[in-house]
Amino acid sequence: MLDRLTHRGPDGSGTHTVANAWLGHRRLAIVDVQGGGQPLVEPDRRLWLVGDGEVYNHRRLREQLEAKGRTFRTGSDHETVIHVLDEEGPEGLSRLWGMFAFALAGADGRFIAGRDTFGVAPLYWVRDGDTVIFASELKAFDPDRRNDVEPFPPGHWWTPGDGLQAFGELPERRSPEITALLGEGEPGDEPPEAVYEAIRDQLTAAVERSMRADVPVGALLSGGLDSSLVTAIAARVAERNGDKLQTFSVGLAGSADLAAARRVADAVGTQHYERVYTPDELIDWVPEVIGVIESFDPMLVHSSVPNLLVSKLAARHVKVVLIGEGADELFAGYSHYGAISSDQELHDELLATIEGLHNLGLQRVDRVAGANGIEPRIPFLDFDVVELGLGLPARWKLSDGERPEKWLLRKAFTGWLPEDLLWRPKEQFGEGSGARDILPKHFEETVTEEEFEAERYVIDPPLRTREELAYYRLFQQHLTGLDPDGVVGRFAEA
Hints:
Strand order of the largest sheet: 3-4-5-6-10-11
Number of helices: 18
Distance between the termini: 32 Å
Radius of gyration: 22 Å
């Protein structure tokens, strides 16, 4: 299993057997590059841990724990997890701030597994009697176990004695701070200036947290609003630290994404790199991409091919990349939100979309980055940003003829980007990079209408298009016999 995940951790590996548990880890060295190898162990060698992701508030937690007399062996952010769990048990997980999945085992037979609230860090498991197996990707599991694989639910922990327990929920209720920000009575049509300031402050702080690393950090820049705002903030942070942010973009020659990204990079002053590909290259990369992302959903495939290529480019220069994922779900960026006129309906839809991110958009982000030995950081899914975004009245996110999608976010960052780029209409990454013009036409032609009608019901719910069947066939070659129901997410529209 560990060998099948070598791509996720090119910087080393480690294993340890303790009591009735076996722990294995592939390392991508981001924090404490020299001393943070895993499995980690606390000084008394009672508790061992393997973990994925980053705990952003580990320095503050470390100071609190050291004040209590705890001793640390490394500078790793995940060593903090060991001490928090030892001090407080699984209930202490609510104190961790970041993206993480882990398994902890003790010489006394203790075992705890957990995953962050949003499911940014991946985790799957198989429960077979007294045997429970965990892994970061579907492909890690033996073929004869794949039909028993389930996603480990975000915001939960598990122990053999207590079973599955929730510790983190989406912050859908307004905090006292947000209530004070909004003032008394029903919100008006126009937010007060303090709301725009809060959006700027929270996203800026999230980007700064996301840039904490002991290795170079860059940004994937599509030229769309979300990645452009993250880039604009990160460029200022880098400049303040005496550095120059590196940015990366891809597209067909002459594509809208390449042109917009180039202008953003020039406007905010980054060291910019481009990867120009051909239509044939897009098509040729699809079989590998489907194996990487472990999905056959057409919309996910369309965005994943250019995402894989830009990640390969970024991996030559940096070990951490900032990504703009999550803004559409917080500020109603998708076109279908435009058909919603009810405040409550829009809020409920945004909440449901965020809850489903872990096996759709976030799955693409994780797998593509993992396949290239880099770590993705997602400032829009910082807990504070999500809490603010979901706490704002949904009516301020409704779009109409006068207000485009994400107008609230755009207005909050007036002056940070050239006006025409700040208010540029949204395009899906696969559209602006050319993938959605090329891939559907090619792959639907590889499946006849007769084949589609004969094979579409091989899974439930059925495959929706000939293109999706073509991708499903490739998916089965990589994950033979896997029943995707409940494991592989699919967008509402093929």
